[in-house]
Structure formats: C-alpha cells, structure tokens
Amino acid sequence: MPWPSPPSLLYLFIGLLLLVLWAPSAIRGQNDTEPIVLEGKCLVVCDSTPSAEPSGNALGMSVRSGTGRVAFSAIRNTNHEPSEMSNRTMTIYFDQILVNVGSHFDPARSVFVAPRKGVYSFSFHVVKVYNRQTIQVSLVLNGWPVISAFAGDQDVTREAATNAGLVMMERGDKAYLKLERGNLMGGWKYSTFSGFLVFPL
C-alpha cells in the first residue's frame, strides 16, 4: 500500500490538530452551564452530570427552593366594622387568605414577617365605602410608613387607595397596612394585600 502524498499528510495533521483543540471546548460548553434565577420562585440549575439519584427531572434540571418560595395574598371577603383593636392600632385586617406560601403572613394580625433578608414586592388595594371622606393607607415596615396611598374623591361612594413597591427587608422584619387618616366605617370588602420575595440577598 503506497504512503499518502505529502499534501494528504498535511491535511490529515491539520484535521487531527483541530479535533484535539475543539473537542475539550465543546465538552466544557456542555458542562459549564449558567444558573437561571426565576425571581421570587426558585433557582434552576442545569446539570449535565446528574448524580446516581437525581433530585430534578428527566432533563437534568435540579430545583432548589428551600426558603426561597415566599408569597401571600389576603382579601377582605366580608364587610367589617372596625373593632376596638383595629381602632386602637389602626391596622387593616383581612379575613380570607388566597395564598400563603411559607406561612409567613399571620392572618390573625394581618402582619407579614420576612423569613430572610431580601427584596420584597408589596401591593395593596383598600376600598373606602362612604363618600365625603379621605383615607390614607400606608404600608408600614417595623412601625414606619414606607409607601402610602390616598382615596379622597368626594363624589365617589366606593374608591380605593392603591399602591405598590419594592422594599428591602431583614429577617424578622414586619410589614402590614395601617390606616393613617380617615375611617373604614361600613367595612372595606374587596380590599386586598399581597406580597412576595423577589430575590434573597
């Protein structure tokens, strides 16, 4: 069998060299995957070398949630006259829980307690029943108002004080809604208060 000509040897050598240089980078590209953060929900990590007992799904994706899943949503389902306690504290109470992932919202006190340091998102919608009055509602963090909203149209019977924002919280910080001005005589049915952890710090 005749030996390959010099040009053929040169092409063969170049091909082997390219294969040696390209293959490791291709393998690294499969293994060095970047994590994907789904804000406020979970951390998804692509794992091309799953363990013998994978904790994720068949696609090699493992989900680590732990205390990362934090969310609540509460509503006022019935009309409720302010009680002696609410008149003293001016806290706005809610009687039905729609979501309470992690159980960090205390329905008895209508207070959310942060389970960890992070950025949290809150929104509220508080309905006033009677016209000819103005109400001011604040999101209170550890006793200090941080976000406020007004409802004061004198010609509207049902109007809502609505606002939303992001708040930095430490572990154990408390957030709730407080009536800063006016009253909620007649109840505040259809009012809502919601929040969730956007991402931990």
Report on this model:
By secondary structure, this protein is an alpha+beta fold. The chain has helices at 6-31, 84-89, and strands at residues 36-38, 42-46, 61-64, 71-75, 96-101, 105-106, 111-113, 118-128, 135-141, 144-151, 159-169, 174-181, 192-200. The strands form three sheets. A five-stranded antiparallel beta sheet has the order 5-4-13-8-11, with no helix packed on it. The termini are far apart.
Q: Any chance you could write out the topology, listing elements then pairs?
A:
Blueprint: H1 6-31, E1 36-38, E2 42-46, E3 61-64, E4 71-75, H2 84-89, E5 96-101, E6 105-106, E7 111-113, E8 118-128, E9 135-141, E10 144-151, E11 159-169, E12 174-181, E13 192-200
Antiparallel strand pairs: 1-2, 2-3, 4-5, 4-13, 6-7, 7-12, 8-11, 8-13, 9-10, 9-12
